[in-house]
Amino acid sequence: MSFTSEFKEFALKGNVVDLAVGVIIGGAFGKIVDSMVGDLIMPVVGRIFGGLDFNNYFLPLAGQTATTLVEAKKAGAVLAYGSSITIAINFMILALIIFLMVKQMNRMKRNQPAAAPPAPAEDVLLLREIRDALLSPARSVFGPVPQEGEAGGPAKPDPRRPLGTA
């Protein structure tokens, strides 16, 4: 098998295509969450904590005095903890949304009727018939087994005759 045909077979498998679609949708979903956090949630949180943007929260490590994060980075080392707070909030919101989606999908799966079990294979059916024939005293491969007292069946023992005597 050539390299190109092997790669084509790998790339066109259902799992690879599904994974690619998931990654693309996940990237777009990440942008939606970033926009929701940056444009809707962070301004409200920033207003509560007295600032408009957590991204500008920093701690200068070189003793410089700067008003913005960009100026502080130009002057020396800074501990920019504000962007970490924003990213942590993004993660929490994304995790909450994914949790709610998975929870809803699991609820929908529970409401679906259970699939019927597959029919047993032909050899299993044959083995079951053989087992049932061997376990049933009234059935035989050659027809019904005569019961005690019937013509061709075992004779009833004479209760007056001791056991072991003919």
Task: Please characterize this protein's 3D structure.
This protein has helices at residues 3-11, 14-48, 69-75, 81-111, 122-135, and strands at 59-60, 78-79. It has a domain at 3-111: Large-conductance mechanosensitive channel, MscL, domain 1 (Non-ribosomal Peptide Synthetase Peptidyl Carrier Protein, Chain A, Orthogonal Bundle). The mean pLDDT is 77. The protein starts with a helix and ends in a 31-residue tail after the last helix. It is built from five helices and two strands; from the N terminus they run ααβαβαα. 58% of the residues lie in helices and 2% in strands. The protein has a two-stranded antiparallel ribbon. It is mainly α.
Keywords:
Non-ribosomal Peptide Synthetase Peptidyl Carrier Protein, Chain A, 166 residues, 2 strands, mainly alpha
| Low-confidence residue ranges | none
Assign the structural class, choosing from mainly alpha, mainly beta, alpha/beta, alpha+beta, or little secondary structure: mainly alpha
Instruction: Compute the average pLDDT.
Output: 77
Number of separate helices: 5
CATH class group of the domain at 3-111: Mainly Alpha
Order of helices and strands: HHEHEHH
How big is the Rg? Answer: 39 Å
Percent range for β-strand residues: under 5%
Sheet with most strands: strand arrangement: 1-2
The appropriate CATH architecture of the domain at 3-111 is Orthogonal Bundle
Query: What would the CATH topology of the domain at 3-111 be?
Result: Non-ribosomal Peptide Synthetase Peptidyl Carrier Protein, Chain A
- CATH superfamily membership of the domain at 3-111, which one? Large-conductance mechanosensitive channel, MscL, domain 1
Shape: elongated
Helix content: 55-70%
SS elements, strand count:
2
Report the sheet with the most strands, covering strand number, pairing sense and barrel closure: 2 strands, antiparallel
